[in-house]
Amino acid sequence: xxxxxSLNVAGDFPLLGRTVRDGKRLVYLDTGATAQKxxxxxxxxxxxxxxxxxxxxxxxxxxxxxxxxxxxAARAAVAGFVGAEFSEIVWTKNxxxxxxxxxxxxxxxxxxxxxxxxxRFRLAEGDEIVVTELEHHANLVPWQELAAKTGAKLRWISxxxxxxxxPASFDVIGEKTRIVAFTHASNVTGAITDVPAVVxxxxxxxxxxxxxxxxxxxHLPVNFTELGxxxxxxxxxxxxxPTGIGVxxxxxxxxxxxxxxxxxxxxxxxxTMEETTFMPPPQRFEAGTQxxxxxxxxxxxxxxxxxxxxxxxxxxxxxxxxxxxEGIATVPGIRVLGPTTPENRLAVVAFDVPGVxxxxxxQVLDDQGIAVRVGHHCAQPAHRSFGVHASTRASAGxxxxxxxxxxxIEGLKQVVKFFG
Length: 420
Hints:
Blueprint: E1 19-20, E2 24-25, E3 27-28, H1 39-51, H2 62-82, E4 89-92, H3 95-110, E5 128-132, H4 141-150, E6 153-157, E7 177-183, H5 195-204, E8 208-212, H6 224-227, E9 231-235, E10 246-250, H7 252-257, E11 268-271, E12 276-278, H8 292-308, H9 310-328, E13 335-336, E14 348-352, H10 358-367, E15 370-371, E16 373-375, H11 380-385, E17 391-395, H12 402-419
Parallel strand pairs: 3-15, 5-6, 5-7, 7-8, 8-9
Antiparallel strand pairs: 1-2, 4-10, 9-10, 11-12, 13-14, 14-17, 16-17
Helix pairs in contact: 1-8, 2-8, 3-4, 9-12
Family: Belongs to the class-V pyridoxal-phosphate-dependent aminotransferase family. Csd subfamily.
EC number: 2.8.1.7
InterPro entries: Aminotrans_V_dom, Aminotrans_V_PyrdxlP_BS, Cys_dSase_SufS, PyrdxlP-dep_Trfase, PyrdxlP-dep_Trfase_major, PyrdxlP-dep_Trfase_small
């Protein structure tokens, strides 16, 4: 077993200092759902509201200029964090909106919007969209809807028994495939996808690739340009930032050609009573009043992660994943849904306690101050592939320690003891 790494930052996160359930120490292992926020992020959002709050790209007064500068500085910080160009970063309210933005832009192109530049995105009956069995619903349902509205056919890559994508089923990516949408890391199994293998297969048939990076962006060094994906989306609240802020990455030439999804103010050039022309990306995809204070918090989160070092953070969480898996293996009867060894996986561990409903498992753990996720984690097909309807999931983050993992393992032993 690896020893505890030197990363020990729980004191930076005010919420983790509170107690729960009659004074018990909070052990927060639900980062896969939403991460806690360090003081630096909380301060940045409050400071913006106290000093710089104004509409961006609209006013000519000093406060509006300051707000716009903060808004665009945050975009630049995100671009640097994920290896993108400034104009390739679109603000959304979350990853779900970003993925829907891409899907609806393809639909609008199919309807003839966007002119000749958008023709490359048109879908027709007989075209195919490929997803995977491990997708979060946010990267599955939009593609189901797009297929239903265009006549395209939805196909999928299967999962193996240990919760990874099955290379043997990559042959569903064929000459008719137009889009391949897949997760960088499963929010159920924690398994990290071999992104280049999927991208290479998609490029060979001329398909566009859409990456769900929600679970990876806060836990691994990520460079979308090097990965070669066409689009990628992630959410701020999973990476120490505020809720209500997300990011869509799109290759510059593709965003330039895409018709918008949402329309209205802030994304237009010329509006007459007959027609409208739209601004270039990224503004083309940022209609209406934006979540500016949240971008300030996102900037602070990026700075916090950069100061820690993503390689160092990943090593810390690798050690926690190994400790968690080894600890669970000592508790009889528990089945891990996904890889049971720490290689190429995150510290996201979903498991089944045979004969015990996940809600009951979560309740017993909660009574001990241990916060985990229960349910299907917005990934019903992934659970179905394991033959279960739901699971309990423990997911660690930058602020967790060996003591947290050990408390969780002891809590699991109490679950098994309680339910016999």
